[in-house]
Amino acid sequence: MFIKYLFLIFLGLTGGILIAAGIVAFITIVGVLTRLAIRTDTAKRILLYEDIVVVGSVFGNILDLFKPPIPVGTVGLMVFGLFMGCFVGCLAVALEEVIQIFPIMTHRLKLKMGIPIIVLFLALGKGLGAFFQLFIHYKK
């Protein structure tokens, strides 16, 4: 029985570490950090940006896992919302640049038809995943 629990702990920790690493890699590859560093003339501190993203991901995982009460009040929520809005905006701009790869991909793969279907299924997958997370997963 002890080995079973030890295996489950190991599996949970490694799965969480892999997911967190994937999210950090996604944010880095999409180019949010590079765009911010170039726009703010702080490209020499890009390693600091990456370290901050990793630390933020670790703290975010800890907060999501243990859900400690954080008494920040209305002003704290407003500041958090402002920072989250800035991050989501930067991520959206970076994703828009990544989406520009679709014309190159269709040209290289010689896709003449079916592109709207691919985009439709990408959107449906994203929508169903969000629906599952928001409405089904948290109804426990």
What does the model show?
- This is Stage V sporulation protein AB.
- The chain crosses the membrane at residues 6-34, 46-63, 75-95, 115-136.
- InterPro entries: SpoVAB.
- Pfam families: SpoVAB (PF13782).
- Keywords: Membrane, Transmembrane, Transmembrane helix.
- There is one protein chain.
- By secondary structure, the chain is an all-alpha fold.
- The chain has two domains: 2-99, no CATH class; 101-140.
- Helix content is 83%, strand content 0%.
- It has six helices and no strands.
- The chain has helices at 2-30, 32-39, 46-66, 73-99, 101-109, 115-136.
- It is extended.
- The mean pLDDT is 82.
Please give a handful of descriptors for the protein shown.
SpoVAB; extended; transmembrane; mainly alpha; 140 residues; 2 domains; transmembrane helix; Stage V sporulation protein AB
Strand and helix map with partners:
Blueprint: H1 2-30, H2 32-39, H3 46-66, H4 73-99, H5 101-109, H6 115-136
Helix pairs in contact: 1-3
Mean pLDDT: 82
β-strand number: 0
User: What structural class do you assign from the helix and strand content?
Assistant: mainly alpha
What is the count of structural domains? 2
The helical percent reads over 70%
Low-confidence stretches: none
C-alpha geometry: extended
Which percent range describes the beta-strand content?
Answer: under 5%
Q: Major β-sheet, in short?
A: none
* Number of continuous helical runs: 6
Protein name: Stage V sporulation protein AB
InterPro entries: SpoVAB
Keywords: Membrane, Transmembrane, Transmembrane helix
Pfam family, one: SpoVAB
